[in-house]
Amino acid sequence: MKQSGDKNQGGEEVFEVTTFTIPFALEETQGNLTINTNAPSKLSNEEIINQALHFHSQGNITEAAKCYQKLINKGFREAFIFSNYGVILKDVGKLKEAELAQRKAIEINPYYAEAHSNLGNILRHIGELKEAELSTRKAIKIKPDYAEAYSNLGNILRHIGKSKEAELSIRKAIEIKPDLSSAHLNLGILLRENGNNEEAIKSQKKALKLNPFSSSARAELIRSKKDICDWSNQEIENNWLENIGIEGEAVNPWDFLFVEDNPIKSLKRSKKYYKDNYIKKSFKIASFKNKKIHLGYFSSDFYEHATMNLIASILELHDKSKFEIYLYSFTPKEDEYTERAKASGCFFRDIKKLNTIESVKLARSDRLDIAIDLKGYTKNNRMDIFSHRVAPIQINYLGYPGSLGADTIDYILSDKIIIPEEYEKFYSEKVIRMPSCYQCNDNKKEISMEPIKRNDFKLPEQGFVFTCFNANRKISPNEFNIWMRLLKEIKGSVLWLYQSNLLARQNLYKEAEIRNVDTNRLIFANKLCLDKHLARYSLGDLGLDTFNCNGHTTTSDALWAGLPVLTKVGESFASRVSASLLTSLGITELITYNESEYEEKALHIARNPEILLRLKSLVANLRYKSQLFNSELFTKSLENKLEKLLI
Fold it and tell me: What CATH number is attached to the domain comprising 362?
C-alpha cells in the first residue's frame, strides 16, 4: 500500500512519499497544514489509506494529513502511515515531530527502509550529519536497490565535505534508477560546487527533462549558466522568473539576486525559503543583565574571504571594556586571517563540528544580548542556528544583501541609500541605518608597493582601460551590451575583467564576437593575493559596475586602491551598494540612474582625460578623509546603534 514518488525540497534531497504515523495528535495550524480529525469517519481503513495516498501523490498535504491522523486516532499501527505523515510534518517545518514520527515507524518495523531514509533527511536538516549518514546507510543495507536513498546519502556526504564519495553514491542512484530526476539534480549541484559547470548543466537539463516543472532544477540551471555567462534561452528563463521560488517549491533567493533587480519578489522568495527549510520553533529569550554587552558574530568566513577583508579591523577595534565579543566560526579552512580573528581580543568559538542543537546550546550559554548573522543564505550558512534563536536580538548583516524573510531575524543593518524609508516594505526586518555607509572597511588593507606596469597583465601601454573585477556571474547582457558599445566608441580601449572560470571567459569572448568586437579587446585577470590585487587597480582607468548585483567588496577595494567606479543605482539592496559607497566617499557624480545615463557618462569620462584625472585625484584624496574607510568611526557608530537597541 506504499506510494513512492520523487519529491525535492530546495533542490537538495528527495523524499520517497511514504506514510508516517505520529505518536500524538496534531490539531493546530502550522504553515499550510490544518488538521481537525474529530469528526467520525464511516470509511474503512483501506479506503482512508487509499484517500491518503491519493491526496499525498497530488500534493494535497492537508487532506493527506487528515487521513493519516484519522488512521492513527483509530489505532492503526503500520510503519508506512507514520513514515508518510513524517514526510508531511517535515514539509511544513515540524522537524522534531517529523523525526518522532519516523522513529515511531522504525519502532513498528525496524526493517522499513523508507523510514530510515526519511529519518536521514530530517536529521540532515537538523544538522545531525553523522546520524543522518548512518540512518541513510541503514536504509541502503535493508534495501540495496534503493535509488532515492543513494541519492540522499550523496547529498549528506556533500554537506559533510566528502565530494568523491558523494558523487559515487549519486551515480549509483542513477545507475539503479536512470529516470530519477532528483538524483540528476543532486549530481548537478555537486558538479557545480566542484567547478565542473559544463557537466553540471547537462545533469540539470536531464533533471528538468524528467521533471519539467521542477523549480529546483530550473533554479540550478539558471545558477550554473549564470556562473559561466551562458545567456542562451533567456526568454524561457525570464518566464520562469515570474513565479520561481514564490509558488511551488522554495529555492534559495541568493541565486536570484544576480538575475533580476526585484526586491518584492526577492522578499517573497526569502519568506518561502525560510518557511520551508528552517525550524519554526523558537522561544523568546529574556534580556540578560550582563555587565558588558555580549555580542556574537556568526560566520564561516573568518579566513581569507571578502567578509574578513571588510570586518577584520572592526573586530579588533570593538571597545572590549563595554562589549564582550564572541566569534562563532564554522570556517572550513583556517589561515592567517583566522589567526587575526583569534588575536582580536574576541572569544573565538569553533563550532564547525557542532550540530545545530549543540551550537545553539553553546551560544545561549554565552548569554548573548545580540547575535549578528554574517551569512544569510549564502554558501555554508547556519541559518538553522538563528531559526532556534540564540539571542533576544538577532541581526542580518554584511553577507546577504537583502531581506532574509525570517521571523527570527529582528533587524537588518543598512543605511539611508541602501534602504530609504519608502523601501522598507521590501524587508521583513526592522531597519538600522548607519550614519554613513552600512559597509565596514578595514583601513589596514595593504597595497603592494612593488613596481608594476600594464604589460605585466597583457594590457596595452596606450589606450583607455575599462575595468570590472566583479564576479563574472554578476554580468548580464544589459551591461555587456553597453560595454561593447563603449569599446567600439573609444578607439584603442580594452575591457579588463576578472576571470571567474575558463568557461565564463570563453562565453564572454563569444558574446563579444556576436557584437562584432575583437576578442583581443577583452583582457582577463587571474586571482592574486590581496595586496597585489589592490595594486593592479592603478593600471585601470574607470571601473564599470554591474547592475543587478553591484560590486560590494569589489567596489570598496577599487575605491581604496584609487580607481573611480561608475555605477547605476537600482531598487534592491544588492543593486544599491556601490551608490552607498560612493555617497559615503563623497563622489556622487559617479552614480547614475538609468542605462542611458550610465553609458553617456562612461563615454564622457573616457573622452575627457582631464575629467578622469580629476576623478582619480578625488578618489585618492577622499579615501583618507571620508567616513567610508574610517574603521574607528564606523566601529563607534555601530556600537552606538547596538547600545540603543538594548535601552
Answer: 3.40.50.11380
Closest CA to 357 of 326, 331, 382: 382
Query: How many CA atoms, within 13 angstroms, populate the side-chain half-sphere of residue 267?
Result: 14
602's enclosing H/E stretch is helix 595-607
The answer to whether 346 and 326 have CB atoms below 8 angstroms apart is yes
pTM (predicted TM-score): 0.91
Positions of the chain with pLDDT under 50: 1-40
Burial of 175: CB neighbours in 10 Å, binned 0-12, 13-18, 19+? exposed
E strands, 10-146, in order: 13-14, 29-30, 33-34
Distance CA 361, CA 8 (A): 30
**Helix-helix angle 79-91:61-73, to 10 degrees:** 140
pLDDT of residue 41: 55
Whether 374 and 351 have beta carbons less than 8 Å apart is answered as no
**460 shares a domain with 396:** no
Res 37: pLDDT = 44
Q: Where are the beta strands (DSSP E) in 248-360?
A: 293-299, 323-329, 347-350
Q: β-strands 370-373, 393-396: how paired?
A: parallel
The DSSP result for 54-85, as a single string, is HHHHTT-HHHHHHHHHHHHHTT---HHHHHHH
Q: Which of 113, 231, 236, 207 is nearest to 510 (CA)?
A: 231
Reading the block at residue 286, the C-alpha cell is 529574556
Within-domain flag for 144: yes
CA separation (Å) from 447 to 199, 405, 491, 531, 552? Answer: 39, 38, 31, 4, 18
Q: C-alpha cell of 587? A: 563622489
Looking at the domain assignment, is residue 224 inside a domain? Answer: no
Would 74 be classed as within a structural domain? yes
* Domain annotation covers residue 636: no
CATH code of the domain containing 460: 3.40.50.2000
